[in-house]
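Hello again,

I reread your note about wanting to compare the complex against the isolated chains. To keep things tidy I'm splitting this into two emails, and this first one only covers the full assembly. Below are the input lines as submitted, including protein chains and any nucleic acid or small-molecule components. They are followed by the predicted structure of everything together. The single-chain runs will come separately.
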Amino acid sequence: MIQVENLTKSFGKFKALDGISLGLQEGHAICLLGPNGSGKTTLIKSILGLVIPERGTIAVNGHRVRQDWNYRRAIGYMPQIGRYPDNMTIGQVIRMIKELRPEETNYDEELIEGFGLKKIAHKTMRNLSGGTRQKVSASLAFLFRPPIYILDEPTAGLDPIASELLKDKMLKERAAGKLILITSHVLSDLEGIASQIIYLQDGRLVFFDSVEALQAQTGEHKLNKVVAKMMRGGLVETLNS
Amino acid sequence: MRTIIKYILKDLLRNKVILIYTLILAILAVSVLQLDANPAKGLMSLLNLTLLFVPIITILFATIYFFNASEFIELLLSQPVRRSKVLLAVFGGLALSLSLAYAVGIGLPLFFLVSGTESLLLAVTGILLTLIFTSLALLIFVLTKDKTKGIGIAIVTALFFTLLFDGLLIGFIYSFGEYPIDEAVVGLIALNPVDLGRVFLLLHMDAAALMGYSGALFKKFLGSGWGSVYAIGCLVFWVLLPLLASVRVFRRKDL
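Full-complex prediction:
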């Protein structure tokens, strides 16, 4: 569904992405991992067309990202920091996004209901906590039932109940054959959700494999330990090469 | 695009800074116009107030607003909408609400207390200056990454047009006073929207006599029908140029 070929992007002298090639398929929840500054957000933003690649191509469902902005219809995006105009209410934000896409009316309001956003729809964004803003962002990402979800640190600011709700939703969508791309530092949150793992370091792809294969390779079961072991192994590999 | 403008407008019309700005303009306008029995003097004071406050307040508020909206702009861009549309819509919402603030704060008192061609021209000039400095703020926003740096550039830009430019112009006139530079000065003034607005209005208020020989020349050129068209045209050009440049830069900007 998402095809990335030899993607390269630098900011000044700093190489944020260096020749990344990936093929992401539906029915998977793919966890995008890597230390800070490894290029995770740049990769996500390149797929969304927010960052303009230097070299390489990205295609979503066969549509080249640079040519046609309409491909974004297929993606629900939840940003890491959700900041909205101060005096807009929750209800207004949701209504505005709906009005932007008037031809799509089959809404998925499960999260809006689940998070109880309807009850606080009159509250202005300025008065919301970071967690509540995250809830609004998450609800917007799922609103149009897109085939692809891109979630940047989705559970970071959420309370345990909301976080569980969001995880259940991700599992449900994955089972429905959708593609979910998640970045997160809280690996325990992705236990049982992630089916594949992409590991980036210094803008380069260290490994991209299914969770089962990685578990078999490392002999560990917990995602935390699998990744920790792979990181040590991966580091040695990069040092040797 | 209309949807985004509508919701930005809704947000800004409840913004405290905009409301206070409108209120202060209104208080100033009413008191200045009531203070003096001679409406021409009142208009002159309002003109000076406009030229002093509108550029700096507009450019500062707009720059800060654009930077604060950058995450919101990212969210809008993740929707199936064209980049230039999002940028123009955010600009439109902001420009509209700041113009509305000026129209209500200065325009309404003018309309009720001294309605006339001069008042209308003052209101139009004030709104054009609002649009120009919002447009310049947009250009600063797309060209800089850092908010603090952006605000710094905005302050310098406003000071350049309201204070520094006149100093340079006077320097130029002094150094080349021996030569026939009057036409050149008319041309140079087009480089500064604030001066352009000032000269344009002064000529219509019959204060040109105070400006000596250059005033007569300005009057001859800018006071005529074509001169007014030229002045307004230059001001409109000052709105469009930074706006189009911003759209161009924004098309290839990394967010």
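For quick reference: The first helix of chain B runs from residue 2 to 12.

B.
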